[in-house]
Amino acid sequence: MYKFVSFFGDRSPLFEELNEKARAYARTKGIDFVWVPQKPYDVEDVIAQLNDTDAAMIDVEPYDENIFGRMNDRCKLLVRFGVGFDKVNLPDATAHGLAIARTTGANKTGVAEMALMQMLAAGRQVMLNRKTVASGVWEKNIGTELIGKKVGILGFGNIGITLARLLQGFDCELVAYDTCPNEAAASALGVRFTDLEEIITTCDAISIHLPYNAETHHLFDAAVFDRMKSSAILVCTARGNIIDEDALYSALKEGRIAGAGLDVYAQEPLGADSPLIGLDNIVLTPHVASQTHESLWNTYKKGVDIVADFFAGSALERGDLLNPEYAGNPRQ
Ligand SMILES: NC(=O)c1ccc[n+]([C@@H]2O[C@H](COP(=O)([O-])OP(=O)(O)OC[C@H]3O[C@@H](n4cnc5c(N)ncnc54)[C@H](O)[C@@H]3O)[C@@H](O)[C@H]2O)c1
Protein backbone atom coordinates (compact mmCIF):
# COMPACT_ATOMS: atom_id res chain seq x y z
CA MET A 1 0.00 0.00 0.00
CA TYR A 2 1.38 3.43 -0.95
CA LYS A 3 1.54 5.95 1.89
CA PHE A 4 0.17 9.45 1.19
CA VAL A 5 0.72 12.07 3.90
CA SER A 6 -1.37 15.23 3.90
CA PHE A 7 -0.12 18.41 5.57
CA PHE A 8 -3.24 20.43 4.73
CA GLY A 9 -5.76 21.82 7.23
CA ASP A 10 -5.96 22.41 10.96
CA ARG A 11 -7.34 20.30 13.81
CA SER A 12 -10.86 21.69 13.55
CA PRO A 13 -13.88 19.33 13.48
CA LEU A 14 -14.41 20.14 9.77
CA PHE A 15 -10.92 18.96 8.81
CA GLU A 16 -11.13 15.97 11.19
CA GLU A 17 -14.23 14.92 9.25
CA LEU A 18 -12.81 15.64 5.78
CA ASN A 19 -9.60 13.76 6.52
CA GLU A 20 -11.51 10.75 7.86
CA LYS A 21 -13.53 10.74 4.64
CA ALA A 22 -10.36 11.11 2.54
CA ARG A 23 -8.74 8.25 4.47
CA ALA A 24 -11.73 5.98 3.77
CA TYR A 25 -11.80 7.00 0.08
CA ALA A 26 -8.03 6.45 -0.26
CA ARG A 27 -8.35 2.94 1.21
CA THR A 28 -10.70 1.99 -1.66
CA LYS A 29 -7.85 2.96 -4.02
CA GLY A 30 -5.20 1.01 -2.11
CA ILE A 31 -3.63 4.11 -0.55
CA ASP A 32 -2.80 4.65 3.12
CA PHE A 33 -3.81 8.29 3.69
CA VAL A 34 -2.22 9.82 6.80
CA TRP A 35 -3.02 13.31 8.07
CA VAL A 36 -0.21 15.29 9.74
CA PRO A 37 -1.56 18.88 9.90
CA GLN A 38 1.08 21.61 9.80
CA LYS A 39 -0.63 24.48 11.59
CA PRO A 40 1.72 25.90 12.75
CA TYR A 41 4.08 24.85 9.96
CA ASP A 42 7.10 22.92 11.24
CA VAL A 43 9.68 22.45 8.48
CA GLU A 44 11.67 19.83 10.46
CA ASP A 45 8.55 17.71 10.93
CA VAL A 46 7.64 18.17 7.24
CA ILE A 47 11.07 16.83 6.18
CA ALA A 48 10.80 13.90 8.61
CA GLN A 49 7.34 13.04 7.24
CA LEU A 50 8.52 13.34 3.63
CA ASN A 51 11.29 10.84 4.37
CA ASP A 52 8.69 8.30 5.50
CA THR A 53 6.06 8.48 2.76
CA ASP A 54 5.59 7.75 -0.96
CA ALA A 55 3.65 10.95 -1.71
CA ALA A 56 2.51 14.07 0.14
CA MET A 57 -0.16 16.75 -0.16
CA ILE A 58 1.29 20.21 0.47
CA ASP A 59 -0.20 23.64 1.19
CA VAL A 60 1.12 27.12 0.29
CA GLU A 61 4.46 27.10 2.14
CA PRO A 62 7.68 27.30 0.05
CA TYR A 63 9.03 23.99 -1.26
CA ASP A 64 12.52 24.22 -2.77
CA GLU A 65 16.06 22.95 -2.46
CA ASN A 66 16.01 23.59 1.32
CA ILE A 67 13.51 20.75 1.59
CA PHE A 68 14.20 18.64 -1.51
CA GLY A 69 17.92 18.59 -0.72
CA ARG A 70 17.20 16.95 2.67
CA MET A 71 14.79 14.30 1.36
CA ASN A 72 15.69 10.66 0.85
CA ASP A 73 14.51 8.88 -2.33
CA ARG A 74 11.29 7.37 -0.97
CA CYS A 75 8.85 10.19 -1.72
CA LYS A 76 8.16 10.41 -5.45
CA LEU A 77 5.30 12.90 -5.71
CA LEU A 78 4.11 16.13 -4.06
CA VAL A 79 0.53 17.22 -4.75
CA ARG A 80 -0.36 20.88 -4.19
CA PHE A 81 -3.72 21.06 -2.39
CA GLY A 82 -5.14 23.60 -4.86
CA VAL A 83 -3.93 25.19 -8.08
CA GLY A 84 -1.37 28.00 -7.59
CA PHE A 85 2.19 26.63 -7.47
CA ASP A 86 4.15 29.87 -7.22
CA LYS A 87 5.78 28.73 -3.93
CA VAL A 88 7.07 25.45 -5.38
CA ASN A 89 10.44 25.58 -7.15
CA LEU A 90 9.83 23.28 -10.11
CA PRO A 91 13.43 23.21 -11.44
CA ASP A 92 14.67 22.20 -7.95
CA ALA A 93 12.07 19.41 -7.78
CA THR A 94 12.90 18.24 -11.31
CA ALA A 95 16.62 18.11 -10.51
CA HIS A 96 15.76 15.65 -7.70
CA GLY A 97 13.43 13.60 -9.93
CA LEU A 98 10.48 14.58 -7.76
CA ALA A 99 7.12 14.93 -9.53
CA ILE A 100 4.94 17.93 -8.64
CA ALA A 101 1.20 17.88 -9.33
CA ARG A 102 -1.78 20.06 -8.47
CA THR A 103 -5.52 19.50 -8.18
CA THR A 104 -6.55 21.56 -11.22
CA GLY A 105 -10.23 22.40 -11.43
CA ALA A 106 -11.22 20.83 -8.09
CA ASN A 107 -11.95 24.21 -6.49
CA LYS A 108 -13.09 26.15 -9.56
CA THR A 109 -16.71 26.56 -8.44
CA GLY A 110 -15.76 27.84 -4.99
CA VAL A 111 -13.35 30.43 -6.40
CA ALA A 112 -15.61 31.53 -9.27
CA GLU A 113 -18.55 32.04 -6.88
CA MET A 114 -16.31 34.12 -4.61
CA ALA A 115 -15.21 36.30 -7.55
CA LEU A 116 -18.83 36.87 -8.56
CA MET A 117 -19.82 37.59 -4.96
CA GLN A 118 -17.03 40.17 -4.59
CA MET A 119 -18.00 41.80 -7.90
CA LEU A 120 -21.63 42.11 -6.82
CA ALA A 121 -20.78 43.16 -3.25
CA ALA A 122 -18.38 45.89 -4.43
CA GLY A 123 -20.97 47.16 -6.92
CA ARG A 124 -23.67 47.38 -4.25
CA GLN A 125 -21.30 48.97 -1.71
CA VAL A 126 -21.99 46.22 0.80
CA MET A 127 -19.11 47.21 3.10
CA LEU A 128 -20.22 50.84 3.31
CA ASN A 129 -23.90 49.94 3.67
CA ARG A 130 -23.12 47.50 6.47
CA LYS A 131 -21.15 50.21 8.23
CA THR A 132 -24.03 52.68 8.06
CA VAL A 133 -26.43 50.06 9.45
CA ALA A 134 -24.04 49.24 12.30
CA SER A 135 -23.46 52.90 13.15
CA GLY A 136 -27.20 53.67 13.21
CA VAL A 137 -26.84 56.33 10.51
CA TRP A 138 -29.09 54.43 8.10
CA GLU A 139 -27.61 56.17 5.08
CA LYS A 140 -28.51 54.70 1.67
CA ASN A 141 -25.44 54.31 -0.55
CA ILE A 142 -26.43 53.83 -4.17
CA GLY A 143 -24.97 50.85 -6.01
CA THR A 144 -24.45 49.76 -9.61
CA GLU A 145 -25.85 46.61 -11.23
CA LEU A 146 -23.82 43.97 -13.01
CA ILE A 147 -26.60 43.21 -15.50
CA GLY A 148 -25.64 44.25 -19.03
CA LYS A 149 -22.13 45.43 -18.10
CA LYS A 150 -18.83 44.60 -19.80
CA VAL A 151 -16.83 42.10 -17.78
CA GLY A 152 -13.18 41.23 -18.43
CA ILE A 153 -11.79 37.87 -17.36
CA LEU A 154 -8.00 37.69 -17.12
CA GLY A 155 -6.96 34.05 -17.35
CA PHE A 156 -9.59 31.94 -19.06
CA GLY A 157 -8.70 28.60 -17.45
CA ASN A 158 -10.75 26.48 -15.07
CA ILE A 159 -11.85 29.34 -12.81
CA GLY A 160 -12.20 32.00 -15.50
CA ILE A 161 -14.38 29.68 -17.58
CA THR A 162 -16.52 28.82 -14.55
CA LEU A 163 -17.00 32.53 -13.82
CA ALA A 164 -18.13 33.07 -17.44
CA ARG A 165 -20.63 30.23 -16.91
CA LEU A 166 -21.97 31.86 -13.72
CA LEU A 167 -22.32 35.18 -15.56
CA GLN A 168 -24.54 33.69 -18.28
CA GLY A 169 -27.65 34.98 -16.54
CA PHE A 170 -26.36 38.56 -16.34
CA ASP A 171 -26.53 39.50 -20.04
CA CYS A 172 -22.99 40.85 -19.80
CA GLU A 173 -20.58 41.49 -22.65
CA LEU A 174 -17.86 39.00 -21.75
CA VAL A 175 -14.26 39.46 -22.90
CA ALA A 176 -11.22 37.46 -21.87
CA TYR A 177 -7.45 37.57 -22.11
CA ASP A 178 -5.38 34.39 -22.10
CA THR A 179 -2.04 33.48 -23.66
CA CYS A 180 -3.39 30.00 -24.46
CA PRO A 181 -6.98 30.73 -25.49
CA ASN A 182 -9.57 27.96 -25.16
CA GLU A 183 -11.66 28.91 -28.23
CA ALA A 184 -14.19 26.10 -27.78
CA ALA A 185 -15.09 27.14 -24.21
CA ALA A 186 -15.17 30.81 -25.20
CA SER A 187 -17.50 30.30 -28.13
CA ALA A 188 -19.83 28.06 -26.07
CA LEU A 189 -20.12 30.81 -23.44
CA GLY A 190 -20.26 33.82 -25.77
CA VAL A 191 -16.86 35.10 -24.67
CA ARG A 192 -14.64 37.10 -27.03
CA PHE A 193 -10.86 37.03 -26.59
CA THR A 194 -9.16 40.38 -26.67
CA ASP A 195 -5.97 42.08 -25.50
CA LEU A 196 -5.16 43.31 -22.02
CA GLU A 197 -5.49 46.95 -23.09
CA GLU A 198 -9.16 46.66 -24.14
CA ILE A 199 -9.99 44.97 -20.84
CA ILE A 200 -8.15 47.57 -18.76
CA THR A 201 -9.61 50.58 -20.53
CA THR A 202 -13.18 49.54 -21.30
CA CYS A 203 -14.46 46.99 -18.78
CA ASP A 204 -16.88 47.79 -15.96
CA ALA A 205 -15.63 44.83 -13.94
CA ILE A 206 -12.40 42.85 -14.21
CA SER A 207 -11.69 39.54 -12.50
CA ILE A 208 -8.16 38.13 -12.29
CA HIS A 209 -7.60 34.36 -12.65
CA LEU A 210 -3.96 34.26 -13.78
CA PRO A 211 -1.08 32.37 -12.19
CA TYR A 212 1.46 34.48 -10.33
CA ASN A 213 4.91 34.57 -11.95
CA ALA A 214 7.50 37.08 -13.20
CA GLU A 215 5.19 37.97 -16.12
CA THR A 216 2.15 38.74 -13.96
CA HIS A 217 3.99 40.44 -11.06
CA HIS A 218 2.30 43.84 -10.45
CA LEU A 219 0.37 43.50 -13.72
CA PHE A 220 -2.00 46.02 -12.13
CA ASP A 221 0.04 49.04 -11.09
CA ALA A 222 -0.57 52.80 -10.85
CA ALA A 223 -0.31 53.26 -14.63
CA VAL A 224 -2.98 50.61 -15.20
CA PHE A 225 -5.34 52.05 -12.57
CA ASP A 226 -5.04 55.41 -14.33
CA ARG A 227 -6.32 53.86 -17.57
CA MET A 228 -9.30 52.02 -16.00
CA LYS A 229 -12.80 53.48 -15.95
CA SER A 230 -13.45 55.42 -12.75
CA SER A 231 -16.63 53.34 -12.34
CA ALA A 232 -14.74 50.03 -12.69
CA ILE A 233 -14.50 47.23 -10.16
CA LEU A 234 -11.43 45.01 -9.87
CA VAL A 235 -11.56 41.57 -8.26
CA CYS A 236 -8.58 39.33 -7.56
CA THR A 237 -8.88 35.81 -6.17
CA ALA A 238 -5.66 34.64 -7.89
CA ARG A 239 -2.48 35.77 -6.11
CA GLY A 240 -1.63 38.92 -4.17
CA ASN A 241 1.40 40.18 -6.01
CA ILE A 242 -0.43 40.36 -9.35
CA ILE A 243 -1.72 43.69 -8.00
CA ASP A 244 0.47 46.45 -6.59
CA GLU A 245 -1.46 46.91 -3.33
CA ASP A 246 -0.13 50.42 -2.64
CA ALA A 247 -1.28 51.56 -6.08
CA LEU A 248 -4.66 49.86 -5.54
CA TYR A 249 -5.05 51.65 -2.22
CA SER A 250 -4.40 55.05 -3.83
CA ALA A 251 -6.74 54.33 -6.75
CA LEU A 252 -9.57 53.32 -4.40
CA LYS A 253 -8.94 56.16 -1.93
CA GLU A 254 -8.85 58.78 -4.71
CA GLY A 255 -11.87 57.31 -6.54
CA ARG A 256 -9.85 56.54 -9.67
CA ILE A 257 -11.63 53.18 -9.66
CA ALA A 258 -14.95 52.53 -7.90
CA GLY A 259 -14.38 49.36 -5.95
CA ALA A 260 -12.45 46.16 -5.49
CA GLY A 261 -12.55 42.70 -4.02
CA LEU A 262 -9.46 40.84 -2.79
CA ASP A 263 -9.10 37.32 -1.47
CA VAL A 264 -5.31 37.19 -1.79
CA TYR A 265 -2.51 39.52 -0.68
CA ALA A 266 1.17 40.24 -1.17
CA GLN A 267 1.74 39.19 2.44
CA GLU A 268 -0.54 36.64 4.08
CA PRO A 269 -1.97 37.03 6.61
CA LEU A 270 -2.73 40.65 5.71
CA GLY A 271 -1.42 42.80 8.58
CA ALA A 272 -4.10 44.37 10.78
CA ASP A 273 -2.41 47.72 10.01
CA SER A 274 -2.93 47.41 6.24
CA PRO A 275 -4.45 50.66 4.93
CA LEU A 276 -6.75 48.58 2.70
CA ILE A 277 -8.75 47.63 5.82
CA GLY A 278 -9.72 51.26 6.37
CA LEU A 279 -11.37 51.58 2.95
CA ASP A 280 -15.14 51.25 2.53
CA ASN A 281 -15.00 50.42 -1.19
CA ILE A 282 -13.14 47.12 -0.97
CA VAL A 283 -14.36 43.65 -0.02
CA LEU A 284 -11.65 41.70 1.80
CA THR A 285 -11.64 37.96 2.48
CA PRO A 286 -8.77 35.91 4.00
CA HIS A 287 -7.77 33.63 1.07
CA VAL A 288 -10.92 31.55 1.43
CA ALA A 289 -12.20 31.53 -2.14
CA SER A 290 -11.65 27.79 -2.40
CA GLN A 291 -12.73 27.09 1.18
CA THR A 292 -16.19 25.66 0.68
CA HIS A 293 -17.34 22.23 1.82
CA GLU A 294 -17.75 21.22 -1.81
CA SER A 295 -14.43 22.49 -3.17
CA LEU A 296 -12.48 21.16 -0.18
CA TRP A 297 -13.87 17.66 -0.63
CA ASN A 298 -13.33 17.77 -4.43
CA THR A 299 -9.72 18.70 -3.74
CA TYR A 300 -9.11 15.84 -1.27
CA LYS A 301 -10.74 13.39 -3.68
CA LYS A 302 -8.74 14.64 -6.63
CA GLY A 303 -5.51 14.52 -4.59
CA VAL A 304 -6.12 10.85 -3.82
CA ASP A 305 -7.03 10.12 -7.47
CA ILE A 306 -3.79 11.76 -8.63
CA VAL A 307 -1.69 9.63 -6.28
CA ALA A 308 -3.54 6.46 -7.36
CA ASP A 309 -3.10 7.26 -11.07
CA PHE A 310 0.54 8.26 -10.61
CA PHE A 311 1.56 4.99 -8.94
CA ALA A 312 -0.58 2.98 -11.40
CA GLY A 313 1.48 4.56 -14.20
CA SER A 314 -1.61 6.24 -15.71
CA ALA A 315 -1.36 9.68 -17.31
CA LEU A 316 -2.62 12.51 -15.10
CA GLU A 317 -5.26 14.95 -16.34
CA ARG A 318 -4.02 17.80 -18.53
CA GLY A 319 -2.48 20.57 -16.43
CA ASP A 320 -2.15 18.49 -13.25
CA LEU A 321 1.46 17.33 -13.63
CA LEU A 322 3.58 20.48 -13.47
CA ASN A 323 7.04 19.10 -14.31
CA PRO A 324 6.74 16.13 -16.71
CA GLU A 325 10.48 16.48 -17.28
CA TYR A 326 11.08 15.14 -13.73
CA ALA A 327 11.23 11.60 -15.15
CA GLY A 328 14.69 10.24 -15.78
CA ASN A 329 16.27 12.21 -12.94
CA PRO A 330 18.00 10.55 -9.96
CA ARG A 331 15.00 9.53 -7.83
CA GLN A 332 13.44 7.34 -10.58
N1 LIG B 1 -8.00 32.26 -3.78
C1 LIG B 1 -7.94 30.94 -3.85
O1 LIG B 1 -8.29 30.25 -2.90
C2 LIG B 1 -7.46 30.29 -5.13
C3 LIG B 1 -7.86 28.95 -5.36
C4 LIG B 1 -7.49 28.37 -6.57
C5 LIG B 1 -6.69 29.05 -7.49
N2 LIG B 1 -6.30 30.32 -7.19
C6 LIG B 1 -5.48 31.07 -8.16
O2 LIG B 1 -6.23 31.20 -9.37
C7 LIG B 1 -5.37 31.02 -10.48
C8 LIG B 1 -6.18 30.46 -11.64
O3 LIG B 1 -6.64 29.16 -11.30
P1 LIG B 1 -7.24 28.18 -12.44
O4 LIG B 1 -7.67 26.94 -11.74
O5 LIG B 1 -8.21 28.87 -13.28
O6 LIG B 1 -5.89 27.88 -13.27
P2 LIG B 1 -5.77 27.39 -14.76
O7 LIG B 1 -4.37 26.90 -14.92
O8 LIG B 1 -6.89 26.46 -15.09
O9 LIG B 1 -6.00 28.74 -15.64
C9 LIG B 1 -5.05 29.77 -15.72
C10 LIG B 1 -5.16 30.38 -17.12
O10 LIG B 1 -4.27 31.50 -17.20
C11 LIG B 1 -3.64 31.47 -18.48
N3 LIG B 1 -2.36 32.18 -18.36
C12 LIG B 1 -1.24 31.76 -17.74
N4 LIG B 1 -0.30 32.73 -17.78
C13 LIG B 1 -0.84 33.78 -18.44
C14 LIG B 1 -0.39 35.08 -18.77
N5 LIG B 1 0.84 35.50 -18.42
N6 LIG B 1 -1.22 35.90 -19.43
C15 LIG B 1 -2.46 35.50 -19.80
N7 LIG B 1 -2.96 34.27 -19.51
C16 LIG B 1 -2.18 33.43 -18.82
C17 LIG B 1 -3.48 30.01 -18.81
O11 LIG B 1 -3.36 29.80 -20.22
C18 LIG B 1 -4.77 29.41 -18.24
O12 LIG B 1 -5.79 29.36 -19.21
C19 LIG B 1 -4.28 30.07 -9.97
O13 LIG B 1 -3.05 30.29 -10.65
C20 LIG B 1 -4.17 30.36 -8.50
O14 LIG B 1 -3.09 31.22 -8.24
C21 LIG B 1 -6.67 30.95 -6.04
Describe the structure concisely for a colleague.
The protein has 332 residues and is an alpha/beta fold. The protein contains twelve helices and twelve strands. The chain has helices at residues 13-28, 43-50, 65-68, 90-95, 108-123, 126-135, 158-166, 183-189, 196-202, 222-227, 245-253, 293-312, and strands spanning 2-6, 31-35, 55-58, 77-80, 99-102, 150-154, 173-177, 191-193, 205-208, 233-236, 259-262, 282-284.
Q: How far is the N terminus from the C terminus?
A: 19 Å
How many helices? 12
Q: Kindly identify the CATH topology of the largest domain.
A: Rossmann fold
Average pLDDT score: 97
**Tell me, what's the shape?**
globular
| Ligands, ions, cofactors | nicotinamide-adenine-dinucleotide
Indicate the radius of gyration in whole angstroms: 21 Å
Which percent range describes the beta-strand content? 15-25%
Q: Please, how many domains?
A: 2
Known CATH architecture of the largest domain: 3-Layer(aba) Sandwich
CATH superfamily of the largest domain: NAD(P)-binding Rossmann-like Domain
Largest sheet entry:
7 strands, parallel
The CATH class of the largest domain is identified as Alpha Beta
Which structural class do the helices and strands define?
Answer: alpha/beta
- How helix-rich are the residues, as a percent range? 25-40%
Q: List the helices and strands in order.
A: EHEHEHEHEHHEHEHEHEHEHEEH
Unreliable stretches, pLDDT < 50, 5 or more residues? none
